[in-house]
Amino acid sequence: MTEIIPSVRGMRDVLFADASRLSHIESVFRLVLESYSFEEIRTPIVEYEQLFKRGLGESTDAVAKEMYRLLDRDEKWLALRPEGTASVVRAAIQQNLCYDDRPRLWYMGPMFRYERPQAGRYRQFQHVGAETLGLEDPLSDFELIQIVTDVFSELGISSGVQLHINSIGSSDARARFRAKLVDALQPVSHLLDDDSKTRLKMNPLRILDSKVPATQVVLRDAPKLMDSLSVESKKRFDKVLNLLENANIRYKLDHHLVRGLDYYTDTVFEWIGTGMGAQDALCAGGRYDGLTTLLGGKPTPGVGFAAGIERIALLHEQMHDVERISTDIYVVAMEESHQQYALEVAHLLRSGSDVRVRQHIGEGKIKTKLRWADRSGATWVLILGDDEQRDRTVTLKWLRFKRPQETIPLSDLLTTLYAKLEF
């Protein structure tokens, strides 16, 4: 036998109810973002790897450990995008979107990271994100937090998430804090986990984000980044917190929240799903006022977020059932001579309503066709034979409830489905 070729490890097939759940979450993000007048942007999946090395930082896990790299025929290194912000900012620079404008952009699509696959973490995963460019006002930070809050409310998962927020200040403030942190941790470095020992040399701030219990104990006595912030950064952060409090958006001040990418400045935030284990970060973001200059553009302030759809789906699954419904109405032609009429009926239903219609394809006796109709999960089957074709009617048979079948004029079909049958 020919060997079956499986999917690549960390890449998965999403089927049926799971796909419906993901689509529902994505549609809610789309509706909420567009209600705030954000415009959609679609960037390439493949970019030059230098975009992410320069934008995210070469020492970040996303670049140093997890990025998929490709060598093209011109001997140039490309990368599958590990996140969306750098691509959106690159597009804004290349397309001159910030000239005399303050673009508000949102995106949706697959990202790629070579991580250890587990529940909620895949090597290909779906992100929805939003970026506001050209605005320094802390209100723009708050607005993005408000958008995600609205999405979680609309999805009915607000009670299962907690907003964590912090300020990491300017690059100068982080440099001062980095020196203090290294001085404090160097004498106790033997108590840190292996990743944190590496980060102590490469990217010390990332140690604050460690989830290893032993390292968290060491960090209790470590310096606080907040103590190194400038007066201006503190005022800015206080305004964001005041906006959250006035909007009754609950938050937790998290001094260990630094985010994993080098481009962040000042406000950073993250939503944590309660009771989800290690993969509990559902959505995160912050301000990145220096990213455009890193990527060769003019200085332009920015703030954004990215949400992991698969992780949100895990929480949504814990809190809500999603019924798999692939078909509402199954259309059956008794004989081949009735197929053209069946096509007309199916088209009428699809074009005049939002029902899901499946027409039987293939030969067989009526019992076989009705068996396929029942197997489809449809609520009703429409049977079309000589009488129905001659009189321009349909015979409607209930599949899920014991109710009498009836003959309905084709001209009244949609009205009957919505009104008489309370469809």
Question: What secondary-structure arrangement, pairings included, does this model have?
Answer:
Blueprint: H1 16-35, E1 39-40, E2 46-48, H2 49-56, H3 61-64, E3 69-71, E4 77-80, H4 85-94, E5 104-112, E6 124-133, H5 138-155, E7 161-167, H6 171-185, H7 194-202, H8 213-219, H9 231-246, E8 252-253, E9 265-273, E10 281-287, H10 291-294, E11 302-308, H11 309-319, E12 329-333, H12 339-352, E13 357-359, H13 366-375, E14 380-384, H14 386-391, E15 393-398, E16 406-409, H15 413-420
Parallel strand pairs: 1-5, 7-8, 12-13, 12-14
Antiparallel strand pairs: 2-4, 3-4, 5-6, 6-11, 7-9, 9-10, 10-11, 14-15, 15-16
Helix pairs in contact: 1-5, 1-11, 5-9
- State the strand order across the main sheet: 1-5-6-11-10-9-7-8
What is the helical fraction, as a range of percent? 25-40%
- Count every helix, treating DSSP H or I runs of 4 or more residues as helices: 15
- Termini gap: 49 Å
Count of folded domains: 2
> If classified by CATH, what would the architecture of the largest domain be?
2-Layer Sandwich
Anisotropy-based shape: elongated
Named CATH topology of the largest domain: BirA Bifunctional Protein, domain 2
Number of strands: 16
**Global Rg:** 27 Å
Structural class: alpha+beta
Word description of this protein:
It is a single chain. By secondary structure, the protein is an alpha+beta fold. The protein folds into two domains: 245 residues, Bira Bifunctional Protein, Domain 2 (BirA Bifunctional Protein, domain 2), CATH 3.30.930; 94 residues, Anticodon-binding domain (Rossmann fold). It is built from 15 helices and 16 strands. Strand 15 and strand 16 form a beta hairpin. The mean pLDDT is 92.
